[in-house]
Amino acid sequence: MAMGVAATAAACFSSASTGVSRSRVRAQATSWAGGAKELVQSGAVKAVRPRDAAEAMSAEGFQLLDIRPAWEHGRAAVRGSVHVPLFISDDDMSPVTLLKKWVHLGYIGLWTGQSFTKMNDRFLDDVAAVVAGKDAKLLVACGEGLRSLIAVRMLHDDGYKNVGWLAGGFSKSVDGDFADVEGESKLRYATIGGTSYIFLQILLLLRVVQ
């Protein structure tokens, strides 16, 4: 989740009287995550453990909304889920952004393999394009649960009232929680890249982790 922490700390939003403005200006993303926790605690948003996700989807009609960046989704994903990334690669080459990318590479990128990202300004529009209206029951998921909290708050404020949150994210899942997973990695390890990925492969080879 290092990408989530770094990008979240830098990502910013604003709200409008009718919900979340499409032209969001800067505000602390962590406040959105905190607001989402309040929604979960109040029961306005349903927290679903990974082991209960399959039942929530089959019995309660939730649709899995995977908001991880493309590289995580490509490593492992639940077949049939809807993928709309909350953070996307930042291709800006201005001097300030290049400096940020250099710092990110030194502190995060080499260890995690995660690229420098920015907020997907079209996130709400992209979700609206692939789900059946704001009455849709969406189970929002990411790697470790922080980025999905931000997405949950954004969706709720934009009028989606049947929103669930995958508590702890895919990192808390075990084999069998999701019946049909595609990709080269296990869901719980899909966030791990860079040098961390090399160490993970060694641990898997030694059967220290499974």
Shape: globular
Low-pLDDT runs: 1-28, 193-204
Spatial extent as radius of gyration = 17 Å
Percent range of helical residues: 40-55%
How does the major sheet shape up?
5 strands, parallel
How many strands in all?
Answer: 11
Could you tell me the mean pLDDT?
Answer: 75
Query: Helical stretch count?
Result: 8
How far apart lie the N and C ends?
19 Å
Report strand order across the widest sheet.
3-10-9-4-6
The topology string of helices and strands comes to HEEHEHEHEEEHEHEHEEH
Question: Which structural category do the helix and sheet elements fall into?
Answer: alpha/beta
- Give the DSSP E fraction (strand runs of 2 or more residues): 5-15%
From the structure above, extract its key features:
210 residues; 5-stranded parallel β-sheet; two-stranded antiparallel sheet; 42% helix; globular; disordered N terminus
Question: Your description of this structure?
Answer:
By secondary structure, this protein is an alpha/beta fold. 42% of the residues lie in helices and 15% in strands. It has helices at residues 2-10, 29-42, 50-59, 70-75, 95-112, 123-130, 146-157, 194-205; strands at residues 15-16, 19-20, 46-48, 63-66, 77-78, 82-83, 87-89, 117-119, 138-141, 163-166, 181-182. The strands form four sheets. The chain has a five-stranded parallel β-sheet. Strands 1-2 form a two-stranded antiparallel ribbon. β9, α7 (146-157) and β10 form a beta-alpha-beta unit. α2 (29-42) packs across α7 (146-157) and α5 (95-112) runs parallel beside α8. The relative contact order is 0.21. The model is unreliable at 1-28 and 193-204 (pLDDT under 50).
